[in-house]
Fold each of these.
Amino acid sequence: MKLVTMAAVMSFVTKIEGDSGKFYQELADKYPEMEEAFLSFVKQNKKNEKFIKQTYFGVITDTIEACYSFEGLDTDDYEFDTDSGSGSTLANLVNTSLTIEDKIQAFYFRAAELSNSMMADVPRAFKKTAQKREDRKQKLQSILDKA
């Protein structure tokens, strides 16, 4: 689905943060020894969504919403699978997590790029959220190295 309006982008932010949060919740339930790490990702996902939405709603006007579009932002480019499967190993699931994080991070960087001409606060929020994903990817890599 092509994302054209900021409202559509906000809906997709809710989807990717919610879907990946649910995935990490399932991993926390499945791997109690890693519960703290995975639950911290769930918590951060909720913060990410709230941060982006608060930033957007704090600066947006009807004029900007009516005159701005995200040309070239397509959800198909950022979709990911969150099936934690009963037969998957921790290593396989962490690799899946890394793929999810790459896609979400790419979405936020692209959304930031496309919203640069819109206003300063929104692309800054997208970039900051994308950069936080890098920290998460490093934590996931650490889990993978131990698995």
Amino acid sequence: MEVLDNLIRKLRKVKDLLPALLLAVIIESEAAIADLNIEQLQAGIRSDSSPIEPPYTPLTVAIKKVKGQPFDRVTLRDEGDFYQGIKIEVFQNEFRLIGTDNKTFKLESKYGEAILGLTQENRIRLIEEILLPGLVDKIRDILYYE
């Protein structure tokens, strides 16, 4: 009976800690979450799955060609500062992607706030590929190693 009592105690602990465990996984996964957003931007897609518009001006297209960067879609990448500034802001029961680069306000004003955030497809990927495995690892640690 001691084994079952111990397991029940650990399961109750997991239940009580579940929100905090998920929050920890989110915080630990900040770079991976930002990478999902960057992947969308590189494809020229906003979080609402619409293309990033308006298109580049002819001058920007010419500059992109010279730099060897994509010019057939808006990627919002020139030197990478905007991408590097993508972080998460965590609240009690949610998080959101924010831009910390000084160009963020200008880019959101021109291209819309939906440049930051995840598409439905990437939200599913986030849950299945990042959050659930991370949460399972934390639960396993409690059940097996505490």
Amino acid sequence: MSALGRASGKVILLGEHAVVYGAPALAAGIERGARAEATRTGDGEPSRLALGGAVVSAVSGEDVARAFAALLAEGDPLPPLSVTAAIDLPTGAGLGSSAAIGVAIARAALSAAGRPVEEASVIARATAWERIFHGNPSGIDVTAAAVGGCFRFTRADGIRPVVPARDLTLCVGLSGVSTSTRVMVEALARLRAEQPALVDGSIARITALVSGAATAIEAGDLHALGARMDDNQALLAGLRLSTEALEDLCARARAAGALGAKLTGKGGGGSVLALAGDGARAAAVLAAWSAAGYEGFVTRVAARTTS
């Protein structure tokens, strides 16, 4: 029996890193993501995963193999499977590529094994996969990959949908520098140990920005959303999470007409998210980035529909 699984990548509109400390964040699933195909194999054979041109066994020692084994073993262990997975996102760019792969594999594996493909089980298995790579992930990447849409997230309460009154046309710019979520989370933890007032004060201000941004999204006020994205970026830069390339991407996006711009994800490299507002501004932002040697793409979070 063969089965397919798919998952979304993600962008964080506001609140990355603060969410690790219990604060809310706003995130959205995007069109680009991951896909997987799983097939039952013979009993007694080790499960295998083909990913990125390599094939690993669930009983070998590489990180990918250990993550695959953790996913299969979470809760009620799954029978031997052969899985092939592919990703449409750059890795290390803060776009949830690892979580998207984990969710896609979990969906395909559960289906191929004849188990119910329930959201809670998919998230639990993908979270087991993520822990191998990221140590203590907030859970927002896995949630975005599994649920999609736009939502407010906290570690304590999970998700609350945030439904845009207007389409959110977003440009994603790639700095070309890959970073580790674990490294950046640990760096902020060290800064918090050294300067707790700075970090905790920034988290409190980010919490207020997230609340205002959610209201702006639901009201269709894109200028207010963009202003809060800019303010969030300033706070992230103050926490040493931004870089020269990320600041350059943000500045070029704003100069090209973006309503707001900030890093998205872990920082230290990775990607920038710019709120374009419409297709013409999006084209101008991508052109400005391309002229400076940066790659990027456009994604959209759809507005609510009326019946």
Amino acid sequence: MITSENRYAAFFAFSEHHFLLSSLLVLLLLQAWVPPAALAWNSVAWSLSVEAFFYAIFPFTLTRFSKFSRSVLFAVVIACWIAGIAVSAGYLALRPAGMPYVSSADWSGAVQFVKFFPLVRLPEFVMGMACGFLFLRSEHKPRLAFPLVGLGLLGVVLTTVASKFVPYLVVHTALPGPAFAAIVYGIALQPKWSAWLSFRPLVLFGDASYSFYLLHSFFVWPFFHNFKTQALRNQGVLGILAWTVMMLTISSLVYKFIEEPARRRLRPKKTVIPPFQPALSAAD
């Protein structure tokens, strides 16, 4: 029987037994390449390891994608979505007979590979690039924003409902990708009704969202997964609200006084980025 205690023992098992190796992998942003070590130190930082790989290959894929027509880009989106789902579905189909239903509590090596290994997550990145180029290569019509965002939100709702019936690994990877792409695409068209998103506190929270993501697990564990003191959790909505306010405050301060100053220091003083002007082919 999987209990909360042995679930989280498995969660940190590799880093406890291989502390030095895990530490080195985290510092080099390589932890996701060794899936059992992906959750070492700050568990959510496994995504940084995957993103570092994406950043490394981005300059090479950028040149290639700039030559694709819109029809090819649409095909890439569909192919990557299918490929992302196929990896998880393939694992579930080939898993050893008698293996229990895979859930978020399963931290076996094979499951960690499907969840964290950078090459497994590559279709999602390529799909995002294709959507980005589709946006650049298309005529921007704000009237399309509402149906795109509406369809995207519907997709998110359906995916959430389906998560009770669809295997966890399938939902965890590429399944909701097109829904989120539609939402981002629609908002990027900047319809008038989205003006409220420019409200300064919301812009600040958006800027601080990465800090929020990277720091939240340090505060999730004490307040929501502590087996002895569950004060905020036991307060229900009030506890969640208090935690949210706390996290928004902390992440905003980190963004303003650490993240943004560091970015200014790392950025070259004179950086000229020419505007991207895609050359539309006859096929477009």
